[in-house]
What does this fold into?
Amino acid sequence: MDNGIHFISGLPRSGSTLLSALLRQNPRFSAGMTSPVGAIFNAMLGVTSARNEGSVFIEDEHRQRLLAACFDAYYADIHPAQLVFDTNRLWTTKLPALVRLFPAAKVICCVRNPAWVIDSIENLIRHNAFELSGIFNFDPGGTVYSRVEALSKGDGMTGFAWNALREAVYGPQADRLILVRYESLTTNPLGTLAAIYHAIGEPLFAHDPENIEPTYDMIEFDIRLGTPGLHHVGSAVRARKRPTVLPPDLFARFQGDAFWEDLTQIPAAVRVI
It folds into this structure.
């Protein structure tokens, strides 16, 4: 990666799409919604593992070059001129490999109280009352309780991301993490961006949170998923308040899981914005 790479990860519905939209206002940066590189990375790990009989001829040095090539090939037309921010929630589970491949890389993790993350997804499902969502395998049945259970289990949309975030925060590569609170991004976008620039060692750019350009590939992606609005970003950054749509017992179940709010409970190496 000629001009380097950083990663965006963390929890869903926590500002990663908004952050990408703001970052790409800088012509030196390339950022977007979840890219396919994570899936390609995992596929490459699989085909070079012992389950492939040809792996007897593959050393770690080969694997490292092949994995790096996933990024080089995908970003071949971008990275000669721009610094890449690749987004995927699985990157917090791949820190040992990412650090070896890209020693200067940081992982920006967007975080939000898990109760509000789940609430945001449920609110979106209710808004799309005549659509079946791919988030729940286009199942027409279910209740808010079964949907929350599916989201929060270990391989669910929110449960996996929350576990992956904790793995990274309490792992040996914690110093690579920058945790960005959803509230910081939506109430003080310029201050949050300035802190990110400082953390990654880039010269500050004059961003405009009042004029955000839409990206139509996100709209098409959400329609195919049966969940219009999943990656919607408004034309300006606004902090919006509303009552939760979750039953009180469900909201209370997850409200205390924002572990990053107690700085005494996370490693000092983790930067929280």
Residues 5-272 form a domain with the Rossmann fold fold (CATH 3.40.50). Strands lie at 5-10, 29-31, 83-87, 107-111, 177-181, 271-272.
